[in-house]
Amino acid sequence: MKQSSLLSSVLLLVSSLFCVQLSAEQKIEDDKYIVHYSAINTTMLTPDVATASGITRSRRRGMLNIAVQKKQSSGKIEGVLAQLKGTVSNMIGQQRTLEFNVISEGSAIYYLSEFFIDDGERLSFSIDVQPIPDYRGLKVSFDQLFFIDKD
Q1: Dihedral of the CA atoms 114, 50, 47, 108 (nearest 10)?
Q2: For domain 3-146, which architecture applies?
Q3: 114 burial class (0-12, 13-18, 19+ CB within 10 angstroms)?
Q4: Angle at the Cα of 66 (from 117 to 62), degrees rounded to 5?
Q5: CA 5 – CA 3 distance, rounded (Å)
Q6: Residue ranges for the chain with pLDDT beneath 50
Q7: Burial level of 14, CB count in 10 A (0-12/13-18/19+)?
Q8: Out of 23, 46, 79, 117, which could bridge 109 as a Cys pair, Cβ 3.0 to 4.6 Å?
Q9: What is the pLDDT of residues 111-128, one digit of tens each?
Q10: CB atoms closer than 10 angstroms to residue 142
């Protein structure tokens, strides 16, 4: 499969994950920006999609997906680049810094980060989103329970 086809597959999968997550309203917003977020087990990705997006597919790995959009005066919403800094912590206080990779094709822009999971583990995510340098920024904070797929 060609690289562009794989990237399109990645974006299609990520978009479909957002469609599911949007019904649960996993987003924050202010008057100018919307930040959508979701976290999944990497086993939900097909091997081709994981490879194309640079994600390690494993039962003990999760993936955080962030999309930042700007509200236009026309009412249209457009994906934008942003600076992201974040951490993931477990319930006993162990904390890791999240490293984000940018995936963009056309107007779609996604930020992906991987992290390790244990079965039945509740993780806390804290991400600072800075769309432009002089903007006050937005803060995404949420907890999620993860289970390891038993094949």
Answers
A1: 140
A2: Sandwich (2.60)
A3: buried
A4: 15
A5: 5
A6: 1-12, 15-23
A7: buried
A8: 79
A9: 999 999 999 999 999 999
A10: 15
88 near 98, Cβ under 8 Å? yes
For residue 97, give the nearest of 109, 112, 115, 73 by alpha carbon.
115
**Contact indicator for 62, 114 with CB cutoff of 8 Å:** yes
CB 140 within 8 A of CB 82: no
Rounded to whole angstroms, what are the CA distances from 92 to 36, 73, 97, 99?
27, 45, 16, 21
Look-up of token digits 């991987």:
114
Do 45 and 55 contact (CB within 8 A), yes or no? yes
Sheet holding 95-98, edge to edge: 95-98, 83-89, 121-130, 138-146
